[in-house]
Model the fold of this input.
Amino acid sequence: MAAHPELSEQDAETIVHWILSLADENKEESLPLEGIFVPANKFDLSPEGMVVISASYADKGTNKVPSLTGTAELILRNPVLSAAGAEGSSGVSDMSLNDVAFKMVGGGEGWLAFPQVNLEEVKHVVLQYGMQKIAKDGWKASLHLDKPDGNQIGSALIGKDAAAMKPAKARIAIDTKGLNESHDLYLVLQKVNKNDPEGIAIISLKLEDQ
Done:
């Protein structure tokens, strides 16, 4: 191959690094800009865990400007939100029974907050709860965005004449039309009849897309 006396030392070094990179057998294969990635094909997933997907892109740079890299991260949470893991609350206390942690609303009202929940394509929230005592008129459970009195996206009457000290479930339909980003999710509970016994235990919320 003929020599190239006009080639600068810096350009020659860049070409050498590029050639050597082609022979790097340990280099992680890049994914296309668009496509499908199935985490379960590469990792062992657990029902209680979450998936964190990080992506980065580096341009080629120029002779005078080094390569620049951009990164982004997406967290896919477990669809079951444990009440014990709520990061904000009012009117509730932490309790556990038979190794199951939950939040107990001891008075006539209370709320739980779950930060930055992606509700896109979620159609129902299944609330798992338990009554401390039989409540004739039950409780109103409502779901709000960003604050306890924020936009209400769903509500249901729960616990009416439900058996005491036994787990129960309520399926709450929610309206997520137009929600394409994460929001703080608030579960607000209010006793319908002030003369009913106090006490409702919240165990978990499950997000469903059907």
